[in-house]
Specification:
signal, Bact_OM_Channel_sf, eleven-stranded mixed beta barrel, DUF2490, about 65% strand
């Protein structure tokens, strides 16, 4: 518990002293239907400008299928509202967006303490417009992650998520580091910080974003044998 409080303190300190930092907070509920299928639902709020502005909020749901112990795939839908200026540039409102995406995940235990995860994602996004739904682009994303596995409740990790805009090319990398904290068998918290960096052009970086995510795994409904 002392380590947990220290990590929370470090996150708060970083947000106080950071320049224009953001904060993402969210929660996920996951339920295993059987040995192959599971469903999930989550919600998240995203703040910017030193956590003074609600930049966006979202809710999503997904269905996952496990092929083997090391390979799984999922399909997901995300709705989110994103803060935008109105046409007269006099006030802000939240425009609706819809994202459909699919993941393929693979993991491999390199050593007793080092695990590698790879995730491939295809995502396509629409926005609500006066004329109806308008596409805003499609991405291929490649995420590479290394995590440290040990007997404690803390599992540190580092990752890089590479964004490829279809029809244009690679345009962004998200560098992330954090720790996954197992509170109980079915409850965990993810504390992390990440930064998006542009590829090519000016190569400018977005402000740091701190993330706090809670996850609950519900019990599987096992059928009774007669």
């Amino acid at each position: 518990m002392k380590h947990y409080k220290l990590l929370i303190l470090l996150l708060i300190t970083g947000m106080v002293h950071g320049q224009g930092v953001g904060l993402w907070t969210g929660a996920t509920v996951e339920k295993k239907l059987n040995s192959r299928f599971s469903i999930s639902a989550s919600g998240q709020t995203r703040f910017s400008d030193n956590v003074s502005v609600l930049q966006s909020y979202l809710g999503e749901a997904g269905l996952e299928y496990k092929f083997t112990k090391y390979l799984e795939a999922s399909v997901n839908y995300r709705y989110f509202g994103k803060r935008k200026l109105n046409d007269s540039d006099t006030d802000y409102y939240y425009r609706s967006y819809h994202r459909f995406y699919g993941n393929v995940k693979f993991d491999h235990k390199i050593t007793d303490w080092l695990k590698f995860d790879y995730r491939f994602r295809y995502q396509h996004q629409f926005k609500d417009d006066e004329s109806g739904l308008t596409t805003t682009g499609s991405y291929f994303r490649h995420k590479f992650e290394f995590s440290y596995k040990n007997k404690s409740s803390f599992s540190p990790y580092v990752s890089a998520d590479v964004f490829y805009l279809i029809g244009t090319g690679f345009d962004q990398v998200r560098y992330k580091t954090g720790v996954d904290i197992s509170l109980t068998k079915r409850n965990s918290i993810d504390l992390s910080v990440f930064q998006d960096r542009a590829i090519g052009g000016t190569g400018e970086s977005d402000p740091l974003v701190f993330n706090i995510g809670y996850k609950l795994k519900l019990k599987e409904n096992k059928s009774k044998k007669h």
